[in-house]
Design a protein that fits this description.
The complex is a heterodimer. By secondary structure, chain A is an all-alpha fold. Chain A has ten helices and no strands. In chain A, helix 3 (69-94) packs antiparallel against helix 7 (187-207), helix 6 crosses helix 7 and helix 6 runs parallel beside helix 10. Chain B has two domains: 4-224, 3-Layer(aba) Sandwich (Rossmann fold); 232-304.
Chain lengths: 258, 305
């Protein structure tokens, strides 16, 4: 029944995320026709882009990548909409929990014959299942809807990118989860996690442009998109970091006085 | 079946020299507490005396800084033993904080899932008696209804020990009386130990058969209510002139108070010896009267100030 409790506590955040991401996925597919119409103009402007600047390099790369439907979906959907929104919902779903104040029934939960490790383990597992659904289900809209605009998108690509996002991005969920064992409100874990995610993305985009690995690159499955295979080592390292953060959260709760 | 420790029947609750610090605040300082199985034990104390902290330590919600606390002979600070303690214990917290997003029926179903011996017959009985609407969200329940619901959740799980922390705080007298009656009739029909904290002396007087009075984190009075009523006496000595500033050497003197020509001595034991000793002071009259639980409480707590 702890599963049921965790589901009740997180269902609205999860369902809102699922609805929003699915709508945005639909939008990404149907935007492609408009992008196709702009492509000749983009190609004409291509030679005018100053590639000596960082911005120029980014624009040129973006135009080049989006010249194919697979590239467009990866750039618009995987790299931007899905990753950004998913991280936001990972932080939101990781926030709150056992030590949240009024209305959460913390003492009632702690008076039940269940260990603290089990209580927060079930909560973490429930949210991880929801996050996996948030990574996979809206992405499945892409291969399903693509034939409607005369395109096709690989189911394997969909699943690989979703799994990369889920495994690597779970670090943000685990961080919010750990912070929720320190702060008793919903907002501080959420804001701190989002701030760290934004800082990491900016640092990677600006300062580590020439470094072949990074958290955002891992989440978006860039290596796989470029044909270099699934980044197993990076995913393994992310999973290890997530597990460590969740373990720290469990230890934190175990030694806490209520 | 009764629990045994070293061959003897284990106390339902046994705490000794319990200390609990929250930073520089000492919430418990050497508390000792024994609750016999099958008793209704009142735990009296002023606000902030350490009642809730004691209960939290017993239920594994907080860990003692030193000392030991055992429930059914099991150490309360060992995680596995604590789960077993909570399997056999029901708890009604002071704030009655439940899951606001659940309905009455949902939280009953949720709680029942943890207790294989859940009493469906009692659940139906108390749903009717307390007039709890199954489809109403907990968020929408009044404080009285919420208390009734927490009591239902506690009574239907066939617990061996029921721990109540200020069960009637914030309730009107009618609901308080209804809950007390329910509790008394339930305990009369089920074999269980009740340990309840309160600062409502009349409640404790009404249903307890033993009490512990706690003040500033330690027990100042403990025993069966009948024994305490038998032992505690107020000795009033009246003098011709102002009462002397007497220091009694007999054991059992809790407090002495002078007021004009009257010297009042509260004794917890051996009133006769104190009376004999007081005759040396030449009072013109002496009077020995029994005291109420309220007086015992007020004097014990005041004696510490």
């Amino acid at each position: 029944m702890l599963w049921y409790k965790s589901w009740l506590e997180t269902r609205w955040r999860f369902l809102i995320g699922l609805g929003l991401l699915s709508i945005v996925a639909c939008g990404a597919v149907f935007d492609y026709e408009a992008v196709l119409k702009l492509m000749p103009l983009a190609n004409q402007l291509d030679s005018a882009i100053d590639t000596s600047t960082t911005l120029g390099k980014i624009i040129k790369r973006g135009v080049a990548v989006q010249s194919t439907y697979r590239g467009f979906i990866w750039w618009q959907w995987v790299k931007q909409n899905l990753t950004q929104m998913w991280v936001l919902f990972a932080a939101l779903l990781g926030s709150g929990g056992l030590i949240a104040t009024s209305g959460a029934g913390a003492l009632f939960t702690l008076s039940l014959p269940a260990s603290r490790a089990r209580v927060i383990g079930v909560r973490a597992a429930t949210v991880l299942a929801e996050l996996l659904a948030l990574a996979v289900v809206p992405s499945l809209v892409i291969p399903l809807l693509s034939p409607a605009i005369g395109q096709s998108y690989s189911l394997v690509d969909t699943l690989v990118h979703s799994v990369c996002l889920f495994v690597a991005g779970s670090m943000f969920f685990s961080l919010a989860f750990l912070l929720s064992t320190v702060f008793s409100d919903l907002w501080r874990p959420l804001l701190i996690t989002c701030a760290i995610a934004v800082c990491a993305a900016v640092a990677e985009g600006v300062l580590m442009r020439d470094v072949p690995f990074g958290m955002v690159r891992l989440m978006t499955g860039e290596r796989y998109f470029l044909g270099d295979g699934v980044p197993w080592l990076g995913l393994l390292a992310s999973a290890a970091v997530s597990a460590s953060l969740l373990y720290a959260a469990t230890r934190n709760i175990a030694r806490m006085d209520f | 079946m009764a629990d045994r420790v070293d061959g003897a029947v284990a106390l339902a609750i046994d705490a000794a020299d319990l200390h609990k610090h929250y930073g520089s605040v000492e919430a418990l300082c050497g508390l000792s507490l024994q609750v016999a199985p099958g008793s209704i034990h009142g735990f009296l104390g002023k606000n902030g005396a350490g009642k809730t902290t004691t209960i939290k330590v017993l239920l594994g919600m907080a860990r003692q800084t030193s000392g030991h606390a055992r429930v059914f002979g099991l150490p309360a600070d060992a995680p596995d033993a604590s789960v077993e303690i909570r399997r056999r214990t029901a708890f009604v917290s002071d704030d009655k904080d439940l899951y606001d997003y659940m309905t009455v029926a949902e939280i009953i179903r949720f709680t029942a899932a943890f207790f294989p011996q859940w009493r469906v017959d009692l659940e139906q009985h108390y749903l009717r008696t307390f007039e709890l609407p199954p489809d109403r969200r907990i968020k929408a329940l009044s404080r009285g209804m919420r208390t009734k619901l927490t009591l239902l959740l506690a009574l239907c799980r066939r617990a061996e020990l029921l721990i109540l922390d200020e069960p009637t705080s914030g309730l009107d007298p009618a609901v308080t009386e209804e809950l007390m009656q329910t509790l008394v009739s339930h305990v009369a029909s089920e074999a269980m130990t009740v340990f309840f904290s309160s600062h409502q002396i009349s409640e404790v007087d009404q249903i307890a058969d033993a009490i512990t009075i706690i003040d500033r984190g330690r027990a100042v009075v403990s025993g069966s209510l009948d024994d305490l009523r038998q032992q505690y006496r107020r000795i009033q000595l009246v003098f011709d002139n102002d009462a002397p500033d007497a220091a009694f050497s007999s054991p059992g003197v809790v407090r002495t108070r002078r007021s004009g020509r009257i010297l009042t001595v509260l004794s917890s034991a051996g009133a006769e010896r104190i009376l004999d000793e007081s005759r040396a002071l030449n009072p013109i009259s002496t009077d020995v009267v029994p005291v109420t639980l309220k007086e015992i409480f007020l004097e014990s707590v005041a004696a510490e100030d």
